[in-house]
Design a protein that fits this description.
Largest sheet: none
Strand content: under 5%
Distance between the termini: 30 Å
Radius of gyration: 20 Å
Helix content: over 70%
Number of strands: 0
Shape: globular
Number of helices: 16
CATH class: Mainly Alpha
Oligomer: single chain
CATH architecture: Up-down Bundle
Number of domains: 1
CATH superfamily: Amino acid/polyamine transporter I
């Protein structure tokens, strides 16, 4: 039987922060500008506040069942049948997110870098990397995430500083965007942007106790919220919000505007490098979480035989959208606006049932 992979909290934090951050590099800034106008930079902070409340439910639930991951807690609270259904829905959302995020990345790369290359070829090339990373194990993915985090942070900082000469603060007006009420509503609705912090509950056994799950979750949320807010702020300071709504890949476009003298330009190549690293963390992490949940549901001790079949499913789902319009208008819209139900409400419901039925397995039981 395979042992649970163990790694440090810093590696877990790096993994979750990158997983949350990766999606803002693509079409997310464009979508946020369409929803709230100029207020995206603090709308994402509102989303972080909602996510903090949602993660509090997750942590409190795990604290009642120390030593268990979220799938085992669902089984303990609801019974094997309902618990398995909730875990299966979580796995379905994670697998769909991995596939749709991969397709989003491929579509943007196809538009700007490989316009004549078939999406299926680009996707299959990437899925091979996901398979290899899954075979070497979750512990190695976590350690790779920690190394990648340094590169990503340095690259992000360099790009932000280089683009700062393009900032115009008048572009923050109107400060309330399309209205404070709309910003609050969208902030709540899009709290799923931080939903991946709840993955700490899925790999809870890889950490040293429930307290470390709490530390990893909240630390990841704070770091991701600050970085995403800075990204949105820099984006709106470079482009007026009506123009920002028309750009497919806002941050890539912003990087292409950076010029210093005659020789220092085409800095978007660095940004593309950051993209590659972030997506090579996000998709393998989500994919491996699906393997963990599926293995729990069917009592599978060796996950390696199911990697290839799930990789084929991942590739198949990613090929379902016909184009980027359908991808952003349907799949990304519903995943990023409603997956909070699975990330936050399922644990909240489990916590409520556990309290009402007085179910717990700690020393006070």
């Amino acid at each position: 039987m395979l042992r649970e992979d163990k790694f440090e909290s810093r590696e877990a934090v790096a993994m979750l922060v990158i997983t949350c951050m990766a999606k803002v590099f693509f079409t997310d800034a464009n979508i946020i500008a369409r929803r709230v106008g100029t207020t995206g930079w603090y709308m994402v902070l509102i989303s972080a506040g909602v996510a903090a409340v949602g993660f509090s439910f997750v942590y409190t639930l795990l604290k009642r069942f120390p030593g268990k991951n979220i799938m085992e807690v669902y089984d303990a609270v609801f019974g094997r049948y309902i618990g398995s259904m909730l875990s299966f829905l979580l796995a379905a959302v994670l697998l769909s997110s991995a596939a749709i995020n991969l397709r989003e990345y491929i579509e943007v790369v196809k538009i700007y870098v490989f316009p004549k290359t078939q999406p299926s070829f680009l996707i299959s090339s990437f899925v091979i990397v996901v398979v290899v990373l899954s075979y070497i194990g979750f512990e190695n993915i976590a350690r790779y995430s920690k190394l990648a985090a340094y590169v990503l942070f340095i690259g992000f900082t360099i790009l932000f500083l280089l683009a700062s000469y393009l900032f115009e603060f008048y572009r923050l007006y109107p400060l309330l965007g399309y209205g404070l009420r709309n910003t609050l509503f969208q902030g709540f609705l899009r709290s799923s942007i931080y939903g991946e912090i709840t993955l700490a509950a899925v790999f809870a056994k890889s950490l040293n106790g429930t307290y470390e799950v709490k530390k990893v979750g909240y630390t990841s949320l704070v770091i991701a919220a600050v970085l995403i807010s800075l990204s949105q702020l820099g984006f709106i300071l470079i482009f007026t919000y009506p123009f920002a709504q028309e750009i497919v890949a806002p941050f890539y476009t912003a990087a292409s505007l950076i010029h210093f003298g005659t020789f220092f330009h085409r800095i978007e190549a660095l940004f593309l490098f950051i993209w590659n690293i972030s997506i090579l963390v996000e998709v393998p992490v989500l994919f491996y979480m699906v393997l963990l949940i599926y293995s729990h549901l069917f009592g599978i001790s060796d996950r390696r035989p199911i990697i290839l079949p799930f990789a084929i499913i991942l590739m198949t789902i990613s090929l379902i959208p016909e184009n980027i319009v359908e991808l952003t208008g349907v799949y990304i819209k519903y995943l990023r606006e409603y997956s909070w139900i699975v990330f936050y409400m399922f644990p909240a419901a489990a916590l409520l049932v556990a309290v009402l039925r007085k179910k717990r397995e700690d020393k006070y039981a």
